[in-house]
Design goal:
Growth Hormone, Chain: A; transmembrane; about 75% helix; mainly alpha; disordered C terminus; about 425 residues
Length: about 425
């Protein structure tokens, strides 16, 4: 939406700029810590409820599916009521629901609570990048987006490395509760840090502007946006599949690692904290812009995945670090590119990306278990490798220009085939 006040975004180094980044980093931590808190606990869930590895992974998929289903309604609410009110509502609801998850009496109740929790969590990623793109100067948008993604990596890491060790010495319920308390603290930081919205104005629908369906349609008719949504679906799906079943693999020969020790491999997420920001900087500096950085990041993912095939713990750790760095570099580029290419319906553009992102997490993250259960880690790696190849082929069709050359055209001329 156009901002009638003439506000052009907080410049880098300003108090407003720092407030946006700190606030969104805290919101990302709260969101992704809760979203993936059970991922490091899947072997315990499998044992506790007497279910298979793929069935246990549904506890991750239920939350990501709920998030995927909710991102578009959240984005519509954000257009009507504002970005910050929606994010504040979402994060409070998610924390409350997160505290209820450990009370689940059976696996079906757990799945239901995780689905609703994921739906509440959807209000953060559905709106965060639209809020960021409106409140931060466009000159620094790629770096800011990379910084936000860095916060999400820390959240994903925190959820895993807190829940699994705590549960090792108690049970999975205590582990999940500990993560929910951490998310509550992060939610308070978000509330206090994020500055008031200045770049947003209400949806112009009442004034004859486009409605929700039209704003969604604009982005769904854009070939570039569809390619970026495909990146989200394919790369995130493969990424979650690897992390879902890594704990099961490391519990088997020749590794035989206890779950608390196996969960420490989630520290590989720190590579994503660095790479997401580095990718944002590289996109603005290197020839070929975002496209070439996206392709390079996908190639890094593939190289890391190949290294994990070796039956050596050192190789698995090294490969996982490389794989994770590549994924978050690709995600930072693709997610930050989406609102840049949308001159209309920025929140819907980002929500469609998140729909694809978490749809891939839910579907492919679960389906990878079928390959793992039937033929082990090589089959899972081969499946994920094919997904990355398809993503790279599609990404190669994107324009290789720097960000300032990719500003969307006026609405009447910008629809792409």
């Amino acid at each position: 939406m156009a901002n009638p006040s003439g506000f052009t975004g907080h410049p880098k180094g300003s108090a407003g700029y720092r407030g946006v980044l700190v606030g969104l980093a805290a919101a990302g931590l709260a969101t992704f810590a809760q979203l993936y808190s059970v991922q490091g606990l899947l072997p315990q869930l499998s044992e506790d409820f007497g279910i298979s590895a793929a069935t246990a992974a549904l506890s991750v998929s239920a939350a990501t599916l709920g998030l995927a289903a909710a991102v578009i309604p959240w984005s519509a609410a954000a257009d009507r009521f504002g970005r910050l009110p929606v994010m504040r509502t979402a994060i409070i609801a998610a924390v409350v629901l997160g505290l209820l998850v450990p009370l689940a009496t059976d696996f079906s109740v757990l799945l239901l609570l995780r689905f609703v929790e994921g739906a509440a969590l959807g209000g953060i990623p559905a709106v965060a990048l639209a809020y960021l793109s409106e409140e931060v100067s466009p000159v620094h948008a790629a770096v800011a987006a990379g910084t936000y993604v860095s916060g999400t990596t820390i959240g994903g890491l925190a959820g895993r490395i807190v829940a699994a060790p705590v549960s090792e010495y108690s049970n999975w319920r205590i582990g999940v509760a500990a993560v929910s308390l951490l998310a509550a603290v992060s939610a308070v930081v978000f509330m206090l840090s994020a500055p008031r919205q200045r770049g947003w104005s209400p949806s112009p629908k009442q004034k004859g502007g486009p409605g929700l369906a039209a704003r969604l349609g604009v982005n769904l008719r854009s070939r570039r946006q569809l390619v970026l949504y495909a990146q989200a679906f394919l790369l995130m799906g493969g990424f979650v599949a690897v992390y879902n079943y890594l704990g099961f693999r490391l519990g088997l020969p020749p590794f035989n690692l206890p779950q608390a020790l196996a969960s420490s491999l989630f520290l590989a997420y720190l590579a994503g904290t660095w790479s997401s920001r580095a990718a944002g900087k590289a996109a603005g500096m290197l020839a070929g812009g975002r496209r070439n950085v996206l392709l390079a990041s996908t190639a890094v993912m593939a190289a890391g995945l190949a290294v994990t095939l070796f039956e050596s713990l050192a190789a698995v750790i090294t490969g996982l670090i490389i794989f994770t760095a590549g994924f978050f570099g690709a995600h930072a580029i693709a997610s930050g590119w989406v609102p840049v290419l949308a001159s209309e319906g920025k929140a819907q553009a980002s929500s469609l990306y998140n729909l694809a992102y978490y749809g891939g997490s839910s579907l492919i993250g679960w389906a990878g278990g079928l390959f793992f259960q039937s033929a082990g880690w090589p089959a899972l790696a081969g499946f994920v490798g094919l997904l990355m190849l398809l993503a790279a082929v599609l990404a190669a069709t994107l324009p290789g220009k720097r960000e300032h050359e990719l500003r969307p055209k006026p609405a009447s001329r910008r629809l792409e085939t």
